[in-house]
Amino acid sequence: MQRIVLLILGWLAIVLGTLGIVLPLLPTTPFMLLAAWCFARSSPRFHEWLLWRSPFGRYLRHWQQHRAMPPRTKGRAIALIILTFAISIALVKILWVRSMLLAMLALLVAFMWRIPVVAETPEPRQPPR
């Protein structure tokens, strides 16, 4: 039963994380980390797929190995966060919603800024067997 719950939670996290790519208030990274955690405990096959075959695999493997982000990735992530929030703030006309978005932007950028940076190291193209 626990395995099924973790599988469902893992796939839900994949869906929400993928939506988070285009929706500014839905974070991608925490959902992908949650999916990796769920799959590691419920399905070695899906965990391997997520780490080695999905578009997020390189970043997840780097996080698991170093507990840090690659420098270019961190810069891109912060720039994308600022861009999507700026668009949202420009489109919203209600002052209190703009203020809330601005506060969320500040907190999110501060959080991202604190994540350590470690340069990427060459890694194998295929999973170790």
Written account of the structure:
The radius of gyration is 17 Å and the shape is globular. It contains six helices and no strands. 72% of the residues lie in helices and 0% in strands. The model has no long low-confidence stretch (mean pLDDT 88). It is mainly α. The protein has two domains: 1-67, no CATH class; 69-116. The two termini are 29 Å apart. It has helices spanning 2-19, 28-42, 44-52, 57-66, 71-91, 95-114.
Secondary-structure blueprint:
Blueprint: H1 2-19, H2 28-42, H3 44-52, H4 57-66, H5 71-91, H6 95-114
Helix pairs in contact: 1-2, 2-3, 3-4, 5-6
Give the strand content.
under 5%
**Poorly predicted runs:** none
Instruction: Kindly state the percentage of residues in helix.
Output: over 70%
**SSE series:** HHHHHH
Rounded average pLDDT:
88
* Classification by helices and strands: mainly alpha
Q: Kindly state the number of beta strands.
A: 0
Q: Quick one: overall form?
A: globular
Number of domains: 2
